[in-house]
Amino acid sequence: MAGLSTPDWLRQRAATTPRRNALRGASEAWSFAELDARVDRAAALLLSWKVRSGDRVGIRAQNSAGYVVAVHALMRLGAVLVPINTRLTDAEVEWQAHDARLARILTDVDLAALLESPAAKSHPREFAFEEYHSVLYTSGTTGKPKGAILTYGNHWWSATASALNLGLLPDDSWLVCLPLFHVGGLSILLRSVICGITALVQPRFDAAEVNRAIDEQGLSIVSLVSTMLDRMLSLRDGRHYPSTLRCVLLGGGPAPLPLLERAAALGIPVVQTYGLTETASQLTTLAPEDAITKLGSAGKPLMGSQLRLGPEGEILVRGPSVSPGYLNGTTAVDADGWLHTGDLGRLDEDGYLYVLDRRDDLIVSGGENVYPAEVEAALLAHAAVADAGVIGVPDAEWGRTVAAFVVLANGSAVTSQELRAFCGERLAAYKVPRSIEFRESLPRNAAGKLLRRELRLSA
Fold it and tell me: What's the whole-model pTM score?
């Protein structure tokens, strides 16, 4: 990809389909031409704030139209975007700012100012595929987080491969309720301009608001994680979703089969997807036509990408959307270009991927492998269980045994013995939790992923 470049994505999109809807926010509804003009104005203001090409600029803010404008304005200036998790403490932010050598951190106040900046001249620019677009910090489930570098080429190939899998319709609109500091949210903004579809940006995930957007605004695609979908279904009272919703991408780890079955019963076209920060979001995604026949699978690699299983079933991936490396100078891939994900999976006879768990979370009990996600799925199948997390704990006889942490649904009551018996009907004896502890809530990151490392620390 060395030497390849493209015109500014938003500028070219605005020239090609200027009147097409680009963004809908809390109080905004802009065409691509309008978004392009606002980005020029924001870029001029950033220049007056001494933001220059090559600078690394953090954004520590909630989802908003201003966030969208800032992302494109930084691209137009050649600055490198570094999204910052809004749930981090000041000390954690300070560490990331030092690690990334940030020139500036934009806040909600700054983003609001970008929307008020006066008219400005155009800032034409081309995007070189090997150029750094963004640095996104991994969740840091073990040790300090690492800043994964994503290039313009990584994002471009991710967006085009996604479109080749899901297809494009003239009136497509994609809901952004994942945080924009997460690659799952950020990637939608870039797909929007590359593919020419509307991004409907919500400030945060709210199950009722997502349901309302699907029902009333003709939303066609939404990206979620399992806990989000579960909350949406719980509010639905058995009502089917409209046919305008053509795809729900479900990521963030293995999805419980009972949840997928509930969704299918309500007419939700769920397609599981698998990706990482280091792959610029999706790497494999189930094709829509396989949503029912391959229920629970994360599909096959998107066009241009490859996948194979390494020792112990570790998922290895290779392709143009894979990060070239991390800010500390380490590469993300081996000598043959394969990224070792640390995730475990299996391939069925047709080559479809089923994600099992993180390799670090695998529980080896008496020589048998136990995948926490499988045990969590069994617990979540019980009507009284709202959330579940499973880890391995030391055991003198078996090496490690299974421990579960459960959040009960409102008004529900069940004993640990009843839950163990329930699991025993669905799982081999060595997979059944030896202990079950009830909690008010479980630790999850802003993208909804269960933080098993925190469970282990609190066990």
Answer: 0.86
